[in-house]
Design a protein that fits this description.
Helix content is 0%, strand content 37%. It is built from no helices and 10 strands. A hairpin with a 2-residue loop joins β6 and β7.
């Protein structure tokens, strides 16, 4: 197992290759680096485009958390421009639903608690979850703002300072060690 490095993890160079350990992608399509939408920096990962598929499609971006993980929060930022019955975004921890996001048009922080030890975290984009005919009227009520995709960025595990947002002009203040007295000149 390879630990999340850096932590928090963003998809900026040289880490803008996907998948790369501790990440994998599997299912009916693959998640990929996207240079158009990010929470921090320029890059994020984006779910595949299943638009028009007649059967249910599922694709996971999977993060393996190592056995020596001491426990603590899993924090990530997601833009889930999805809406049932067309599509949904579900996060599974060790096969159990931990979060579900729909109609999230701007990046939103998601914080989940991980127990000590190894974990499998599946970020799951699911399209046509009820196997509906995409040409039927069932998809006609999906608002135009729904893009049919999910982006994730700024992932961290454990107690670390989260990644700063990309579009800020303000300096980011990060916690430091307690100050030490500087020597005074006599």
């Amino acid at each position: 197992c390879v630990p999340l490095n850096p932590n928090p993890y963003t998809f900026e160079p040289p880490k803008n290759v996907f998948p790369i350990e501790p990440w994998t992608t599997e299912g009916d399509g693959v998640w990929a680096i996207d240079p158009t939408t990010a929470y921090t920096g320029t890059y994020s990962i984006k779910s595949p485009n299943f638009d028009g598929e007649p059967l249910k499609q599922v694709s996971n971006a999977t993060l393996e958390v190592c056995d020596d993980f001491e426990g603590g929060p899993l924090v990530f930022y997601a833009k889930a421009s999805v809406l049932p019955p067309q599509d949904v975004f579900i996060v599974y921890i060790d096969g159990v639903v931990a979060a579900q996001l729909v109609d999230v048009q701007d990046f939103e922080e998601v914080k989940l608690e991980l127990k000590p030890g190894g974990h499998r975290v599946d970020f799951s984009y699911q399209y046509n979850i009820f196997n509906l005919d995409p040409d039927s009227t069932d998809f006609d009520n999906i608002p135009n703002k729904i893009l049919g995709a999910v982006w994730i960025d700024g992932i961290s595990t454990g107690n670390v300072t989260p990644a700063p947002p990309a579009d800020t002009d303000k300096p980011t203040l990060l916690p430091t060690k307690s100050p030490t007295k500087s020597p005074m000149k006599s």
